[in-house]
Amino acid sequence: MSESIEREKKYLVSEEKAQKLKAISKWKLGVVQWYLQDCSFFDFAKDKNIKNCRVRYMVDETGNEKWIVAFKSELMEGFKRIEEEYEIRPNEALWNNLIRTPVAAKVRYFISEKPAEIVLDEFVELEKPYNVSVKYLVEIETHEDFEIYEKEYELGNGLNYEEFDRYTNKNIAIVSSIPPRLIVEKIRQIMGVSSFKMMRRKDRELPIGKALEIIEKGEYGVLSTFDGEYPYGVPVNYAYKDGIIYIHCALDGKKLENISKHPKVSFSVIAKSKVLPEKLTTAYESAIAFGSAELLEGPEKKVAIFELVKKYSPQFAKKYSHIDETEENEECKNTAIIKITIEYISGKSRAEWV
User: Fold this and answer.
1) I need a labelling partner for 131 at 20 to 30 A (CA). Which of 89, 259, 328, 338 fits?
2) In this structure, is residue 192 part of a structural domain?
């Protein structure tokens, strides 16, 4: 745990100014920040009776990653505030608590570190605009006179107290439908450290939100597993919820055999397809997700069955809406459920509908 008193100011800058600052930056960092209203699942938060906190993910250009939980005071006179930080490791409880939590993603360029830390934040678009319209924001943190650096970098006077509060990351952040793992992977990709390559045809790339919509609304998808020698693709019914794909199947079979040995899988869905013979092409919309698959047991298996029934037989959804953790019904006994945790997704389209 570390505690410090910050003294910082913020500055809105133009595209032209941002490009000049990028050109002289020393290094950069990919950052994702979530703002939680209830942080009681952290032991150190319980001890201090703290509720609100910020969870920050950081990755540098070599792939080094760090997760930090921070508790900040309100801004005080002299642009000061107290901050406590704790380094953590992500676990399933954290990932679940980050779902649909206000979030902001950005690339941070370090212009100077001593005697003043001067950074340029470039905000990364998610599936909808941020709560405050902003693309670039400069921050100066120093114990010296801000004017020295305002003149050196031609930044102007910066934001006043009222504006400062408006342009805090907490107020900029949005509640995103994009699962936290996918936001992290997007930043890793921007930083050039993801194992997933950028799509070559940018003109046909769909936003993550649209790709997830295709997965969510698709009638069926193709699950691809690997047996160590050959890939194995099979069309299946499925349900999607909060970054998870649920697939029901028999209690044994090749899919389950493959997953037990090679849990990494892909899952593809085609939303639209129309052959355009006069153009020698096809108009389409599709998405492909990559992730880790496992055989599901326990209460979440009942959640998965409910999601599948709700999607394909909604007239029976009420019957399956009550989840009793102590009771195993016939559907659970006679059905296997595969859970795919999506780690990366891409969508592609050729929109030439006639």
Assistant:
1) 89
2) no
